[in-house]
């Protein structure tokens, strides 16, 4: 299954003694999800920021790539 996404977020401090301004981020992305039976799901997502964020990008996740495998075992 192919998925599309658009994400928006705003972060602000509740404390009045902190001098940080509210920050906004936004991104668009694509993802694939593979369901293998009732218990196993694999997922791969790629996102591209619409707002520039400073900082180093050392990991795949920091570069917009995310992969997960989930196995659900009934109790």
Automatic annotation (TrEMBL):
Protein name per Swiss-Prot or TrEMBL: Bacterial surface antigen (D15) domain-containing protein
Domain of life from the UniProt record: Bacteria
Organism: Stenomitos frigidus ULC18
